[in-house]
Amino acid sequence: MKGLYQMKNEIVANNLTAGYGQGFHFENLNLIIPSGKITSLIGANGSGKSTILKTMSRLIQPTHGEVYIDGKSIFHMNTREVAKKLAILPQSATAPEGISVEELVANGRFPHISGMRRLSVEDREIVHWAMEACNIEELSKREVDTLSGGQKQRAWIAMALAQKTDILFLDEPTTYLDISHQLDILQLLQKLNQTQKVTIVMVLHDLNHASMFSHHVVAINNGEKLIEGTPAEIITEENLRCIFHVKATILVHPSLGYTMCIPYAFDRDTND
Questions:
Q1: 268: exposed, middle or buried (C-beta count within 10 Å: 0-12, 13-18, 19+)?
Q2: At 132, is the secondary structure helix, strand, or coil?
Q3: What residues make up the domain containing 192?
Q4: Under a CB-based contact definition with an 8 Å cutoff, are residues 186 and 105 in contact?
Q5: Are the CB atoms for 252 and 235 separated by under 8 Å?
Q6: Are residues 176 and 88 in the same domain?
Q7: Three-state DSSP class for 208?
Q8: Tens digits of residue pLDDT in 39-54
């Protein structure tokens, strides 16, 4: 496989099968995540988005298939090697009690530290760069538990940035945030993609956010990839009936130009 996938930081799932015991599982998934882009996984609750994301980041071991980064299977890499290539922010990340923002962000440097070595000058510079990129320098001495939801998300994203990986996975990064903090986090991720060329893969529930902030959208249903493409190609009346069983009006934002959807009814005919 190594010679087949030449694009740097391209992520390829090949015949991937995984799941949770007797519960949800998906089979023979084939998916290519484009390098240097923002990809959003969308789908109804329980469709398998998070399970797929966790398997592609090696948090879940598949029963069959492979995930390749730069042509190399991540399941044949050691943990430190994987952590140097991709960072993942789970849906409900929890920090140790009493840990400061700076200490949390510094944890992102652990894949690069051997043995009991302390943070080097370079490591500390990277930690401060990550906090600066996420606009949380003034919070560095604060305990993570004292932060607002949006501030916590920024701290966790800064920790992922401190890993200095080219790939970032996020499982519902806007969950439990109000609309202003949702947009704040998504604009931060967009900026990181534009300025640092980070390949971003995230699970999103809000279709308008997926349309506004993504280059590539993958629709998942019952663990299967239904369709993928640009937001304008995916977010159509027909596709929303098929994926979410809803009727919706599709519009184009008058000034920003991205596709918008306004769901207005449950479509019983497609749910039978």
A1: exposed
A2: helix
A3: 11-94+165-235
A4: no
A5: no
A6: yes
A7: helix
A8: 999 999 999 999 999 9
